[in-house]
């Protein structure tokens, strides 16, 4: 689930950036500070979308930087239990596949890929189904459902997302298309 929220913070603008538009500089600084941070209620901050308001700013003696109180909008993503997501397989390991879901990664355990028995092909770096000859490789695009979710800590590194592809309409995009074609013939 994506959501835009309004946040307030103080931004330190160094003197070498005084000649640039304040809204652009503030957005750059805020993005560096917040992107990838986790808020328990809102989710992962993806990006600062708009600087809404700012005060006159104050220069601190001895620092030379200007400090501005900024009100800004930010885009958040919060994964939800049972949500169906599309993602790209970014890594295949012996016990499953990591799938990139926007700003975070989820794991599809081998037991959750298909109803078929899965082997790990070390040379190819792929997961292969024994009877159906389905394969899952890095860079494949998949549709999966979130079945386990743990949003802890302060960043995406501390989050754990468990995925399944064992239900109708889920799996590698090519598998889904093949299933649709098969159902349309019947």
Outline the structure in words:
The structure is a single chain. The protein has two helices and 14 strands. It has helices at residues 22-34, 173-185, and strands at residues 2-13, 38-39, 43-54, 58-59, 66-77, 84-93, 96-101, 104-109, 118-121, 126-129, 135-136, 141-151, 159-164, 171-172. Strands 1, 2, 3, 4 and 5 form a five-stranded antiparallel sheet that branches. It has a five-stranded mixed barrel with strand order 6-7-8-13-12. The radius of gyration is 22 Å and the shape is elongated.
Structure class: mainly beta
Percent range for β-strand residues: over 45%
Main pleated-sheet profile: 5 strands, antiparallel
Radius of gyration: 22 Å
Number of separate strands:
14
Q: Quote the average pLDDT.
A: 93
* Percent range of helical residues: 10-25%
Total count of helical runs of at least 4 residues? 2
Low-pLDDT ranges: none
Spatial separation of the terminal alpha carbons: 36 Å
Globally, the shape reads: elongated
Sequence of secondary-structure elements: EHEEEEEEEEEEEEEH
Features:
186 residues; mainly beta; 5-stranded antiparallel β-sheet; 5-stranded mixed beta barrel; 2 helices; 14% helix
Overview in brief:
The chain contains two helices and 14 strands; from the N terminus they run βαβββββββββββββα.
Describe the protein's topology:
Layout: E1 2-13, H1 22-34, E2 38-39, E3 43-54, E4 58-59, E5 66-77, E6 84-93, E7 96-101, E8 104-109, E9 118-121, E10 126-129, E11 135-136, E12 141-151, E13 159-164, E14 171-172, H2 173-185
Parallel strand pairs: 8-13
Antiparallel strand pairs: 1-5, 2-3, 3-5, 4-5, 6-7, 6-12, 7-8, 9-10, 10-11, 12-13, 12-14
């Amino acid at each position: 689930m994506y959501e835009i929220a309004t946040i307030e913070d103080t931004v330190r603008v160094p003197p070498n950036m005084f000649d640039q538009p304040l809204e652009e500089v503030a957005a750059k600084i805020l993005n560096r500070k917040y992107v990838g941070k986790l808020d328990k209620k809102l989710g992962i901050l993806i990006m600062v979308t708009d600087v809404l308001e700012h005060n006159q700013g104050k220069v601190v003696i001895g620092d030379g930087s200007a400090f501005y109180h900024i009100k800004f909008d930010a885009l958040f993503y919060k994964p939800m239990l049972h949500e169906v997501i599309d993602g790209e397989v970014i890594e295949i390991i012996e016990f499953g596949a990591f799938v990139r879901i926007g700003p975070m990664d989820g794991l599809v355990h081998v037991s959750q890929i298909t109803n078929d028995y899965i082997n790990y092909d070390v040379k190819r770096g792929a997961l292969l189904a024994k009877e159906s000859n389905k394969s899952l490789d890095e860079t494949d695009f998949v549709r999966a459902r979130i079945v386990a979710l743990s949003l802890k800590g302060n960043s995406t590194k501390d989050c754990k997302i468990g995925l399944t592809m064992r239900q109708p309409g889920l799996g590698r995009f090519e598998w889904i298309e093949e299933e649709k074609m098969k159902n349309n013939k019947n």
